[in-house]
Amino acid sequence: MTLRNQVLIWISFLVVLILLLWLFRGILLPFVVGAALAYLLNPLVNQLQQWKFNRGSATAVVLLCVIAIIVSLFVMLVPLIGQQVVGLIQRLPGYVADLQALIRRWSPEINEWLGPERAAQFEGTINDLTRQALGFIATLPAELVNIGYTGASVIGITILTPVVAFYLLLDWEGMVRGLQSLLPQDYKEEINGILKDIDRSMAGVLRGQGGVLLIDAAYYATALSLIGLNFGLAVGIIGGLLSFIPFAGFAVGFALSLGIAIVQFWPNWWMVVAVCAIFMVWQFIEGNILYPKLVGSSININPVWLMFALLAFGALFGFVGLLLAVPLAAIVAVLIRYGVRKYKASTLYKGTNGDADGDASAA
């Protein structure tokens, strides 16, 4: 088979895969989450097998322990977080009205500082942002419900996801052997090398991305609650969980926290400065240390491309696309690096006399 035919086959396979993902995007969420859970838990199951557990018992023990931890956290934290989130959504229009009142109270100072024309532009900008924020808040519950019903039902998430994870874990080794048997013999070693690179990259992405989400949510929720910000726990959780989109978690959390802090603590500006410091310091740590080390280094791509992947897959597949964007970006990055290596080793890059020139220069 010629190289051209191989490339056409792989491109056709990729197009068919994307088409299938798009067609079934409405029911993929429990399967995506179940597959990710199985992928993360497979090393633990393998370890139990080394301790003389059979595959079925090891799978059941690991999955039951994980479910117990998740349910415990759900029972302890979700009622409190849910109460704060509902309270925040109900209270936000009041916060917006209070902010507008403060701006009107500061109008003389703003006019003196900026001038009448710029002050009017500033007030118009604030009012536009306020209307957009209120529109987003008004549609947020409907969007959450829409995600729940189009991505997967509550029953699908709570029941189907563990079932998918269990059966994938149970037959993981069989699936791997089946895929190995389908690899073309002439290229089996080379393809296995690529698959190992993808495996390392995927493991790093899932651990890194999950670690960033948890650390961000824990930090923001703890810090904002400690300084006494109203609904600090809810704002921190929202900002942390949105951090899988570069800068989105920071922007949403900072805007909500700053608006609440101005209304709650005015005229104590030191508390407003403290809220700003919480976000600015952590944004520096996350952007320069946490995210590059845990996520960016795992897939070795620029955050700009991560944002592009999130926007592109989100537009194509909705909420499921957001979950798939970073892992798929990791896979694409591995394949691109492999393609670049092959290109640099080819006569297209070196030229027909590339090796001969290299030998002559070395002599």
Give a verbal description of the structure.
It is a single chain. By secondary structure, this protein is mainly α. The protein has a domain at 188-345. The chain has 15 helices and no strands. It has helices at 3-23, 29-50, 55-105, 107-114, 116-151, 154-170, 172-182, 188-226, 232-241, 248-265, 269-299, 303-317, 319-344, 347-350, 354-362. The longest helix has 51 residues, at 55-105. It is globular. Residues 147-152 and 356-363 have low confidence and may be disordered.
What is the number of helices?
Answer: 15
Shape estimate: globular
The ordered H/E elements are: HHHHHHHHHHHHHHH
| Number of E-type strands | 0
Give the helix proportion (percent range).
over 70%
Largest sheet: none
Low-confidence stretches at least 5 residues in length (pLDDT < 50)? 147-152, 356-363
**Terminus-to-terminus distance:** 38 Å
Percentage beta strand: under 5%
Computed over alpha carbons, the radius of gyration is 26 Å
Structural class: mainly alpha
The whole-number mean of residue pLDDT values reads 76
